[in-house]
């Protein structure tokens, strides 16, 4: 286990401790909820992880380096931001794909920009949820206000990675 | 279903190019990856479940009005990050918040915070798959962004009324 994994486990146990203090009912619901979550997630991972592994084998090792590699700098961050906005589907598609990109040589700042772009712009979510519920004026307000953020996120991540060596996926 | 289709297509392509051993090796990589992420996955699911027992984002709406300033945007950002589940859970809550008095800046901050740093997505997918180091770094970098976007959204000259 890595340090980050231990940290996450400790936080989870602390939160579960708060549930216990609330009463046994609360704690039992949290455990049941965890089990149900696991039950829902496992089939998704059973499909998504092999997909990511196949794609990682298919994509040549240096295919992504020129466009969104660690040396691609600002232009790579911009490309990744837009690509993220066009990626369809929920987190169970996006994160395994990011993992495949990382194996193909994508840089850490570029992947931070890609995830941010996907989170903010996700076209499919705008079309199916935001536009019908809140209207196009709201969509316009939100997109204008948030448009530069993926690029900013990528540049900030680049500054962080220059100081702290942070990798993607398995160390 | 979509991932299954992509996965099968990719497996077939790999088979044609490199033969069956390559497919087997890729499957073995996937299994190794799963073993590696399993501890984070369990911890993430437990934390997400415990948080759902402890907090309810809707209760924070009364601090998110148009006069709430940066504090309201910060509350909206917190509420967004604490909202569990996918869009089918979050967007109905947006309507609840709007009805309870949240202004458009707060709603923009709320949606962005949920989309960027929703704890469930973070704990169940990003931390296990991409590693806690990357996930924590990306979260810290993007943490103030919903507030900034909400601040800008309050000043954009586009008329918008919350749906009734």
Question: In short, what is this structure?
Answer:
The complex is a heterodimer of chains A (171) and B (164). With 171 residues, chain A is mainly α. Chain A contains nine helices and no strands.
Number of strand elements of chain B? 0
Overall morphology of chain A: globular
Tell me the β content of chain B.
Answer: under 5%
Outline the low-pLDDT stretches of chain A: none
Largest interface pair: A-B, 88 and 82 residues
User: Structural class of the helix and strand makeup of chain A?
Assistant: mainly alpha
Strand and helix order of chain B: HHHHHHHH
Report how far apart the termini of chain A are.
11 Å
Average pLDDT of chain A: 81
Q: How many separate helices of chain B?
A: 8
Q: Count every helix of chain A, treating DSSP H or I runs of 4 or more residues as helices.
A: 9
Multimeric status of the protein = heterodimer
Question: Percent of residues of chain A in beta strands?
Answer: under 5%
- Structural class of chain B, by secondary structure, is mainly alpha
The low-confidence parts of chain B are none
Main sheet of chain B?
none
Largest sheet of chain A: none
Mean pLDDT of chain B: 80
Describe this entry's structure for a reader:
- The complex is a heterodimer of chains A (171) and B (164).
- With 171 residues, chain A is mainly alpha-helical.
- Chain A folds into two domains: 1-58; 61-171, no CATH class.
- Chain A is built from nine helices and no strands.
- Chain A is globular.
- The N and C termini of chain A lie close together (11 Å).
- Chain B is an all-alpha fold and 164 residues long.
- Chain B has a domain at 55-155.
- Chain B has eight helices and no strands.
- The radius of gyration of chain B is 20 Å and the shape is elongated.
